[in-house]
Specification:
This protein is an alpha/beta fold. The protein has four domains: 1-51 and 150-189, no CATH class; 59-147, Beta Barrel (OB fold (Dihydrolipoamide Acetyltransferase, E2P)), CATH 2.40.50.140; 260-290 and 305-429, 3-Layer(aba) Sandwich (Rossmann fold), CATH 3.40.50; 460-619, Rossmann fold (3-Layer(aba) Sandwich), CATH 3.40.50.300. A seven-stranded parallel sheet has the order 11-12-10-13-14-9-15, sandwiched between helices. Strands 16-21-20-17-19-18 form a six-stranded parallel sheet, sandwiched between helices. A five-stranded mixed beta barrel has the order 2-3-4-6-5. The chain binds adenosine-5'-diphosphate and magnesium ion.
Length: 703
């Protein structure tokens, strides 16, 4: 068993024959391989067919990936500093070529010194009529091996440092072989229950691992991959489903009745008829809060779909049942916008509402906190300030979190401790999550969805313009401003190249100023590097209509409501994610005016770039857009997913293997329904695996 101290797979890697302390240290640091077991799960990323080689004279074309066998006849190091490189002459009887290295020179030199035959693998390019390969993979071949190359030779990811120090790919392969000589089939515990292995015709775990490292045939390799994908997705799903299931046993408050507060508001003060989706969601929440277990629900609804009113009605429901409610938003501006609009909606009702943020003055804060603790204050709206320990509720029954992705899980957890039982939690997000991902990222939450927009919305016209039309776009903006409208101009901001991005932003700001001179136009700028005060001040000047143009990074992405803004210009649109652009677009079209979203890009766009712009221009549904985003970019880029850890899958692919994901989810659910705590004997290996430390680490990141 894995947790057993004599589990051979837990043996530190340095004890493997041929490794030792020094190499062990390298393996730990460079490849995160600590134990025998870790080495087994460091899978090859491709295989070489070592039985077929190309002759140098037959290299088909520039850029071809080739595998050659031959001898290195000469080598020298030339150049200095950054130009320093190792050039080796490689010959295979049919011709010669250069092999070139800029890094790891010492290690390579040492390897080629020993002479003999070498295997060379890499991308051929042509220079001055002569073939060469830069940074090829090179392995020394024993003479005894020359006649018997396997058709599948594993290739493992490695690092320059490993190569330089001692560990050529070839040597690593030998270590893995050594490892297989040191263990037996019974050492590799199969955590999948036998009935599942049988039902899905899976090979054993040992067999899968052996075949993925040293496949005997293409068919066996595919079987191994299938088994390992199945296992990975199954474990992922069983964890998520367990979370969700265990959740059903978390006791929560019962909201028994719909009372006077709710009914009065609903009958007399609701400014519009609810959409069917809004009604449906309310019903789901109503049912959920009656069961006696705690609600943990995600409310997904496109930008402008009317989540706020649903939130408010839920809070009234809490009040009717003798509880307090709070609503938390990620920024001061958003929180205060919620406060203002909810206060306005409730102005004719006798309900005490408070606002709390980091900026609330001490005196006011004191009053609020006292009233909150006494229970007079029924609704508290604010920022992170709400979760501070000093904020003590009399009887908190419902916490609503707007724009989920800015709140960490830890912060959510803090809310749980604000009452004797954890309050019901409703998380609202406008980032639509593709169906396929919802299974993974939010598998532990119940989900409610608002798909339809309130009636009477004017569609936003979206156009894509390349850089050469900039002047025209600016003219159009002038025209809109003359009509009394306001304009957003947004620049991309991607963490890795922050500095560059700010340069872009400032350059953009200067450029905008040339089109819109100071004496006629007021331009405000907001970005994340400003102090909060500065940012708020500038943002306010736009909200209250003083500034005509707001130049910004994506800090304005979430929730901000300025109904008079009619144009959203997205600069370098090719650098934004589709869902992000959709969010930005949702900042306009909030008033009575016809609104526009203009996507500005360079004139040379890749095929995918064009497709993405086309999607934005033609699609209006956030859900459709997020599906497309997922297909074009992969899951790693989408917010919720990065957090969920689903993108950490090692062998399965969240998009390509979605069918298998659904299958394993079904299997997981069936197992847990029959045996929620996995107590049956057949699940012992599975349970042990799930509770082993390593798994815990991974899952604590995810849930
Ligand atoms: P979001 O879901 O993006 O938070 P909001 O709750 O801010 O959306 O709602 C957007 C706008 O739509 C608000 O001005 C709100 O008053 C209005 N609204 C919400 N529900 C309806 C409805 N059923 N009919 C008409 N207008 C609505
Ligand atoms: Mg909102």
């Amino acid at each position: 068993m894995f947790t057993h101290s004599r589990d051979i797979l837990l043996t530190p890697i340095e004890y493997l024959k041929g490794v030792g302390p020094l190499k062990g240290d390298l393996l730990r640091k460079e490849l995160n391989i600590h134990t025998f077991g870790d080495m087994l799960s460091h899978y090859p990323f491709r295989y070489m067919d070592r039985s077929s080689f190309t002759k140098i004279k037959d290299i088909p074309e520039e850029g071809a990936t080739v595998q050659l066998i031959g001898k290195i006849t000469y080598s020298e190091v030339t150049g200095n500093g950054k130009g320093r490189r190792l050039v080796a002459t490689f010959k295979d009887g049919s011709g010669g070529m250069d092999l070139v290295w800029f890094q790891g020179i010492v290690g390579i030199e040492r390897m080629i010194e020993r002479g003999g035959h070498f295997l060379v693998y890499g991308k051929a390019s042509r220079f001055n009529g002569f073939w060469n390969i830069t940074h090829p993979e090179v392995d020394a071949i024993e003479n005894s091996e020359l006649d018997s190359f396997p058709s599948f030779q594993p290739v493992y990811s490695s690092t320059e440092k490993l190569k330089a120090k001692w560990l050529s790919g070839r040597l690593y392969v030998k270590l893995v072989q050594q490892l297989f000589n040191s263990i037996q089939a019974k050492d590799v515990v199969d955590m999948l229950p036998l009935k599942i292995i049988n039902a899905f015709h899976l090979c054993s775990r040992y067999e899968a691992i052996r075949q993925i490292h040293f496949p005997e045939s293409e068919q066996q390799l595919q079987q191994a991959i299938y088994r390992l994908k199945f296992e990975e997705l199954f474990l992922h799903q069983i964890n998520i489903c367990k979370l969700k299931l265990n959740h059903q046993y978390v006791k929560g408050f019962v909201f028994e009745k719909v009372g006077e507060v709710f009914n009065t508001f609903y009958k007399h003060h609701l400014p519009f008829e609810l959409t069917n989706d809004q009604k449906k969601v309310l019903k789901e929440i109503r049912q959920n809060t009656q069961t006696g277990s705690q609600m943990n629900r995600l409310l997904q609804g496109d930008v402008g779909s009317g989540k706020t009113i649903v939130a408010l009605l839920c809070m009234l429901l809490a009040i009717d049942n003798g509880f307090q409610a709070c609503l938390m938003a990620p920024t001061e501006i958003l929180a205060s916008q919620h406060y203002v609009s909810i206060k306005a909606l409730l102005c004719e009702m006798n309900i005490e509402i408070g606002f709390l943020s980091g900026k609330t003055k001490a005196k006011e804060r004191k009053i609020i906190l006292e009233s909150l603790q006494k229970g007079d204050l029924k609704i508290l709206i604010g920022t992170h300030a709400l979760i501070e320990d000093k904020v003590i509720f009399n009887n908190l029954g419902l916490s609503i979190i707007d724009e989920q992705h800015r709140f960490g899980v830890a912060q959510r957890a803090k809310l749980w401790q604000k009452n004797t039982l954890p309050p019901h939690i409703l998380v609202m997000t406008a980032t639509p999550i593709p169906r396929t991902l919802a299974m993974t990222s939010y598998g532990d939450l119940d989900v409610s969805i608002i798909k339809e927009l309130p009636p009477g919305r004017k569609p936003i016209t979206t156009v894509h313009r390349s850089e050469i039309y900039r002047a025209k776009v600016m003219d159009f903006i002038k025209h809109e401003i003359a009509l009394g409208r306001q304009i957003y101009i947004v620049y991309p901001l991607i963490e890795e190249s922050e500095k560059l991005d700010y340069e872009n932003l400032y350059a953009g700001y200067e450029q905008v100023k040339q089109f819109f001179p100071d004496h006629t136009y007021h331009i405000a700028m907001v970005h994340g590097k400003q102090t909060q005060d500065e940012r708020e001040h500038n943002m306010r000047s736009f909200i209250n209509g003083q500034a005509h143009i707001l130049v910004a990074t994506t800090v304005i992405e979430v929730g901000v409501n300025v109904p008079n803004a009619s144009v959203m210009v997205i600069e370098s649109a090719e650098r934004f994610g589709l869902s992000q652009m959709h969010q930005l677009r949702g900042r306009v079209g909030r008033g009575a005016d016809k609104s526009y979203c203009i996507l500005l890009t360079g004139s040379k766009l890749s095929q995918i770039g064009k497709e993405r712009m086309h999607t934005m221009v033609t699609e209006t549904s956030g859900f459709a857009i997020s599906e497309k985003d997922l297909a074009l970019r992969g899951p790693g880029e989408l917010d919720g997913v990065r957090q969920s850890g689903a993108a950490d899958l090692k062998i399965a692919d969240i998009i390509k293997d979605v069918a298998l994901m659904a299958t394993t989810r079904q299997v997981a659910i069936e197992i847990l329904q029959q045996d929620p705590y996995l107590d049956r004997a057949e699940y012992i290996p599975l349970k042990t695996w799930l509770t082993s430390r390593k798994q815990q680490e991974i899952w604590s990141r995810i849930s």
